Amino acid sequence: MPSLQTLSSFWSAPVVATNMLVFLNLLGALLLGLLVGYERSYHGRAAGMRTYGLVCMASAALTVIGGYSPDWFGGHNPLVTGGDTTRVIQGIVTGIGFLCAGVIMREGFNISGLTTAASLWASSVIGILVGVGFYAAAMALALLSAICMMWISRLEEWLPSRQAVAITLRFRTGFQPVESVLRNMATARGFEIAGGSISIALKDGHIEWRFVAVAQSRQKMVTISELAHEMSRFDGVIGFNLSYARN
Hints:
Layout: H1 4-9, H2 13-42, H3 49-64, H4 85-103, E1 105-107, E2 110-112, H5 114-132, H6 135-158, E3 164-171, H7 179-188, E4 191-193, E5 199-203, E6 206-215, H8 224-231, E7 237-244
Helix pairs in contact: 2-3, 2-5, 2-6, 3-4, 3-5, 4-5, 5-6
């Protein structure tokens, strides 16, 4: 049974001061994580403020405790010689990799969650920066991450770009679609079929084509609603599915 002197060592002035420093680090990391996570929460993503706050704060906690190893166990453990912070950081990065992989989803040609995964990884780095005492760098990274997620998308909309649309066409039984005809139809509407994106399947006796159509320019392309209206009148098409190919 531990003695009163051993128990009191956990509340000695140096250990309490260390605990206060760790607490301030955790509080700062939590606030910075919440700042980054607000953008994801605002846009209805699965990983929101709570996830980012916890990731950032936990990363800071795992990092900062390595810097105060002499105060572990009330400062009375002779086996503690010092923590290897670089190995702790390596473990954090590895663990966050599994968490990030869980938010990436793929459905057909669409890949979602990449931005959330990247920002979660950035959130863990913010926590690490707080843990090692690089407070200004941590605040700068949090601010830059938030700016990147909030306003870079607007910059992308302003810059010239080519929108991609994932298309699935289902043809009536016995109808044989011709690739050159489909390409000409896409060109007439401001699109071109991306090379190597065509896949053909036979389901319930119906031929099904899947491909990605890339806009030649924003000025030439028709909207996805107009494209859907026209596809409903295409000869041989009995069903279709359109969605923006996003990541």
